[in-house]
């Protein structure tokens, strides 16, 4: 299964490179091309093309449905604004997702390794020693404030 997921990921990345960082895909056509279930396409999109990895997905289901995938190479301000609106809008974020966002921000050069480690340390479950039912809410608030501080640097 991992080989199939890798192949789908590489195919989509090659399309993104070829078509200026944005592609529209038909889930069923892609599944047919790879001889897999549409849920496999969903899995690859969710795990390998998430916002924390620098991608944004728009999806329309139904007869004429599509998936619009965009690689985010926007400036720091736009990226942080997008994360605030999309990833933190629900008011909660898991430790894993927060770490992925920080890692992506480092990989695109918005923060350095030291900042990633410091912010990451503050956002761990170990650092936020409160009941689990409110931990992700507190973490989201902390991350939001960190991002707003980064946004205000420019």
Give the secondary structure arrangement, pairings included.
Blueprint: H1 2-18, E1 22-25, H2 27-33, H3 38-48, E2 55-60, E3 66-71, H4 76-86, H5 95-107, H6 113-122, H7 132-151
Antiparallel strand pairs: 1-3, 2-3
Helix pairs in contact: 1-3, 2-3, 4-7, 5-6
Task: Please name the defining characteristics of this protein.
154 residues; mainly alpha; 3-stranded antiparallel sheet
Structure write-up:
The chain has about 150 residues and is mainly alpha-helical. It contains seven helices and three strands, in the order H-E-H-H-E-E-H-H-H-H. The chain has helices spanning about 1-20, 25-35, 40-50, 75-85, 95-105, 115-120, 130-150; strands at about 20-25, 55-60, 65-70. It has a three-stranded antiparallel sheet with strand order 1-3-2. Strand 2 and strand 3 (about 65-70) form a beta hairpin. It is globular. The N and C termini lie far apart (about 45 Å). The relative contact order is 0.11. The model has no long low-confidence stretch (mean pLDDT about 85).
Gist?
The protein has helices spanning 2-18, 27-33, 38-48, 76-86, 95-107, 113-122, 132-151, and strands spanning 22-25, 55-60, 66-71. The protein is mostly helical and 154 residues long.
Radius of gyration: 17 Å
Alpha-beta content class: mainly alpha
Total helical elements? 7
Give the neighbour order of strands across the main sheet: 1-3-2
Sketch the topology as an H/E string, one letter per element. Answer: HEHHEEHHHH
**Helical proportion, percent range:** 55-70%
């Amino acid at each position: 299964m991992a080989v199939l997921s890798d192949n789908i990921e590489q195919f989509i990345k090659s399309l993104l490179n070829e078509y200026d960082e944005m592609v529209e895909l038909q889930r069923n056509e892609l599944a047919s091309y790879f001889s897999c279930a549409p849920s496999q396409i969903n899995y690859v999109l969710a795990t390998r093309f998430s916002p924390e990895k620098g991608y944004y997905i728009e999806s329309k289901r139904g007869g004429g449905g599509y998936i619009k995938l965009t690689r985010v190479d926007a400036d720091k301000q736009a990226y942080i604004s997008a994360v605030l609106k999309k990833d933190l809008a629900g008011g909660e974020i898991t430790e894993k997702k927060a770490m992925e966002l920080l890692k992506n921000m480092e990989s695109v050069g918005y923060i350095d390794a030291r900042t990633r480690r410091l912010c990451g340390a503050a956002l761990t479950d170990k650092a936020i020693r409160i009941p689990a039912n409110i931990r992700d809410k507190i973490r989201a608030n902390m991350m939001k404030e960190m991002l707003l501080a980064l946004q205000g640097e420019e």
